[in-house]
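Expect sequence, tokenised fold; for instance:
***
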Amino acid sequence: MIGKISGRLDWRGSDSVLIDVRGVGYVVHVSDRTLAGLPGVGEAVSLYTELLVREDLLQLFGFPTMLEKEWHKLLVTVQGVGAKAAMAILGTLGPEGVSRAITLGDQRAIQAAPGVGPKLAQRVILELKSKAPGIMAMGVRLSATAHADDVVIETEAPPPKRAAKPAAPPPRAAYTADALSALINLGYGQGDAAQAVATAAGDAPEADTAALIRASLKLLAPKG
């Protein structure tokens, strides 16, 4: 299994890239969102990958974070969602958007992905709503971006290698995951906690962990 590829970006297509790894070129399919975030041709690049194996086909799909890769693996378990449809959903919403849409039952958000109709969007929500909190809880650990600091790209005069800097997880993903973990530790059920955090994050996109916890507790408080 090819789990990660690090090399030089050799070519960009509309939905795939060619990565040169010491003379061997790998075609990797990526979402629009991932493609837009990649460096220029000739620069170092690194992606986590998932290999799709069929009788007549081998395809690599690439992701900037393990969080996105895990969401892709979960999405394709839904009947009718193939690897490309899962990429379209992630490319449209991103991993955080997918988490929020599934947790809140936002069918229209899933339908915004190209090629995803209402029945398929509904199936995604119904089949994955109970599984979404598990990935959300792992958000901090899985949201680090793949790095290409260890890639060897031969040039006439290679610059001195700088010390690799650890990747910081995206703040929003960290805040959401930390808030969810805190609520679960307080005794709330994972499903209820995930829905409250997703709602709070949607209402206040810039909220940090503390603000998300406060807002979520208000949502979880008994009514009446």
Summary: The radius of gyration is 19 Å. The first strand starts at residue 4 and ends at 12.
